[in-house]
Design brief:
The protein contains 17 helices and 29 strands. It has 687 residues and is α/β, with parallel strands linked by helices. Strands 12-11-13-14-21-20-19-16-17-22 form a 10-stranded mixed beta sheet, sandwiched between helices. A 9-stranded parallel beta sheet has the order 5-4-3-2-1-9-8-7-6, covered by helices on one side. A 6-stranded antiparallel beta sheet has the order 10-23-24-29-26-27, covered by helices on one side.
Length: 687
């Protein structure tokens, strides 16, 4: 499945920083000059400079333009573009041009097309119409990547390689024959023998025992529930297969251009579950992310913050790139509303506040034709006499004033545990309830922390937790022994650790940990659940206790829980079949504490509980701020800090901040900091 080309002697330390030739933060977007005539391309240069653009992604969907017929190559537009951008002082994230195979390739080799679980073939006519595991597609894609590297590897405009595009976005799971063969190879590598696979998959159930790896298929559409561990392993395999595709393209580029950094644009949002991005991190020279807000979501700015923190978590706390977002409306939601005045700037600076060293968009010039012609761009259909264009120019100037922030890191003392395999496993079929959505629980806890002004790092169960005073673990259904021990050690060391329902239930093979729930966390929490009691649609129960603000309601989930000696019940069910039973518990552990939340609290109850947890952990907001005013701090090693204050409300805010310099206005601050309604302020202070 895989062809490795990077030599063993490859020196990762010799790879140059992607932004080495930029003076500050990156600003730009996708640039698709092949869609436009020569006179428009010439105008682009002047307008790009007017906007302050300094980096562009180029050639993402250019394969069919460069190679309209097999072996017939035309580099004219790309040669001109690279030279023109270099002359204008603009750096290029040059793509491998492989994100959509040309029509001649899928016509010649229809077997490279991906399939759904029911056998439906996904045909040419959109994009990503390829099976990443098919050797023919891999051969052609690697050849195109090599051609790009050979032609432009020494071009002075080249800043980094943009490998393919949003890998796995449209086809996170492929069930083609090529994928099936690759899955069998992956399983043989993982388990070594079919006997070990049978044990891991529990194939004694329903007469599923395999005599050979050759008998194994992907979890295709079947008469009843597919084997859950088979489904889970196919999720793991699919993420790995997409990563291997990236690696092969990257290694092809590295063989020719070993000093040029490589990345691909991830999609760390609360909706993208197909790839375990934490497992991708070590293969990216810089983490790049795409993010789009959902216009119907009244709290989309909170979801944006979560996604940005997740991107930073994948980057291990290092600065990252926002490779795509939108200036205004998109084209793919049911109702595509434009952004409100000032929203685009707030969105952009939220990403910067949470670690982005580049702000980029899809795309530079709004397309005149094609499926994304109603997707907003930096330069809209209306041209330069438009609010969107004026916002683009304003943002470029604003990012110029924030140049000094580049390279700094975000300060956080709270950790939120997110794990993709746990996500996959928690949402398998034949569970106590099909209404549970893993990211709903993650987002609920994140929102409660955001409302308290607590900045979090998004981490995995295996992350070193020594730097955190509060560790929140929502619905970690699947966890291995090492991950469970790591979380327990955080409490022993002095952190407040809170674990929520349906956590610790199964091991890495999706086998239930016997003896009572929550399995892996029973000893840590001092509780034992004998039976789950999920609630029906619309059903609610009352919960009482000081920890939840006196009284609250809960839905989705309850359970019959017993507590051990030393475990305190801090909230109970007040009605229903479990009336009087434990809903929330607390236990002293070492120098810290461990809390268990056995139900899904309403917003008021969760906010009250988070208030207790924050107070017990000793966390305080960076600056006291009214509701809806977001405060995040980036800091440099020399003690310089930048306090971002983002006002998402219609009311002006006055903040009691340290003295310093406000970068967006250039004003000295020696007293309260005024943040107008809908505005952003960035205060530089020194130790």
């Amino acid at each position: 499945m895989r062809r490795r080309t990077t030599p063993d002697s490859f020196d990762a330390a010799a790879v140059r920083p992607w932004n080495a030739q930029l003076d500050g933060l990156g600003f730009g977007g996708d640039y698709n000059p092949e869609q436009w005539p020569a006179e428009v391309r010439e105008e682009d240069v002047r307008l790009l400079q007017e906007a302050g653009v300094n980096v562009l992604s180029v050639a993402i969907f250019s394969w069919a333009t460069i190679e309209p017929r097999e072996g017939e190559l035309d580099w004219t537009f790309l040669d001109e573009t690279m030279d023109r951008l270099h002359a204008a002082g603009i750096r290029v994230a040059l793509a491998t041009a492989t994100a959509s195979p040309p029509p001649w390739l899928t016509r010649k080799y229809p077997e490279i097309l991906p399939r759904l679980a029911d056998g439906t073939v996904l045909h040419q006519g959109a994009r990503q119409s390829y099976a990443v595991t098919h050797p023919v597609h891999r051969e052609y894609a690697l050849r195109m990547a090599a051609r790009m590297a050979e032609r432009y590897g020494d071009h002075p405009a080249l800043a980094l390689w943009h490998v393919d595009n949003e890998i796995g976005c449209h086809v996170p799971r492929d069930y083609s024959d090529a994928a099936a063969a690759a899955f069998r190879t992956w399983l043989a590598d993982r388990y070594g023998s079919v006997e070990h696979l049978n044990t891991a998959w529990g194939t004694a159930f329903w007469s599923q025992r395999y005599g050979s790896f050759d008998d194994v298929l992907p979890p295709l559409t079947a008469p009843m529930f597919a084997n859950p561990t088979q489904q889970l392993d196919f999720d793991r395999f699919s993420s790995d297969a997409l990563l291997e595709y990236y690696r092969d393209l990257r290694d092809t580029l590295r063989e020719i251009t070993p000093r040029v950094p490589t990345t691909t644009n991830l999609m760390t949002t609360s909706a993208t579950k197909g790839m375990d991005y934490f497992s991708w991190a070590d293969d990216l020279d810089v983490v790049a992310n795409d993010h789009y807000t959902i216009s119907a979501d009244a709290e989309r700015h909170v979801e944006l913050a979560l996604s940005a923190d997740l991107a930073r978590g994948v980057a291990g706390g290092e600065p990252w790139m926002l490779m795509e977002h939108s200036t205004s409306a998109v084209n793919w939601q049911p109702r595509n509303r434009p952004k409100t005045p000032g929203e685009m700037l707030r969105n952009s600076l939220q990403h910067v506040a949470r670690g982005a060293d580049a702000v980029m968009f899809f795309q530079w010039r709004q397309s005149q034709a094609g499926a994304e012609k109603y997707h907003s761009a930096m330069l809209p259909h209306a041209g330069t006499d438009s609010a969107v264009w004026r916002s683009t120019v304003e943002l470029g100037a604003t990012l110029g004033r924030l140049a000094e922030v580049r390279g700094s890191r975000v300060a956080a003392r709270a950790a939120l545990v997110v794990d993709y395999p746990a996500w996959w496993a928690a949402e398998l079929d034949s569970h106590p309830t099909q209404d549970l959505r893993y990211m709903d629980e993650v987002r609920a806890w994140y929102t409660a922390l955001w409302n308290r002004g607590v900045t979090v790092d998004v981490v995995t169960p295996r992350t070193d937790l020594d730097d955190y005073d509060l560790v929140v673990v929502p619905t970690l259904y699947l966890v291995d022994d090492a991950g469970a021990a790591n979380l327990a050690s955080a409490a022993e060391r002095g952190a407040v650790v809170v674990v929520t329902f349906f956590s610790g239930i199964v091991d890495e093979h999706d086998h239930v940990r016997l003896g009572g729930y929550p399995g892996a966390f029973r000893a840590l929490l001092g509780v034992r659940t004998e039976e789950f009691a999920p609630l029906q649609a619309g059903e609610r129960v009352a919960v009482v206790g000081k920890a939840v603000g006196g009284d609250a309601t809960a839905d989705l989930w309850t359970e019959h829980t017993h507590v051990a000696d030393g475990t305190e019940v801090v909230a109970t069910y007040d009605d229903g079949t479990l009336a009087g039973g434990a809903a929330v518990t607390r236990r002293d552990v070492g120098s810290g504490s461990a809390w268990y939340v056995g139900t899904r609290l309403d917003r008021a109850g969760l906010d009250a509980l988070v208030t207790c947890l924050v107070e017990e952990s000793g966390l305080t907001p960076e600056v006291a701020a009214p509701a809806g005013v977001e405060i995040v701090r980036r800091q440099a090693g020399d003690g310089t800090t930048w306090l971002f204050a983002i006002n998402h409300t219609d009311e002006a805010a006055v903040l009691d901040t340290p003295s310093g310099t406000e970068l967006l206005t250039g004003s000295a601050v020696d007293g309260p900091l005024d943040v107008p309604a809908g505005a952003v302020r960035v205060l530089r202070t020194t130790a």
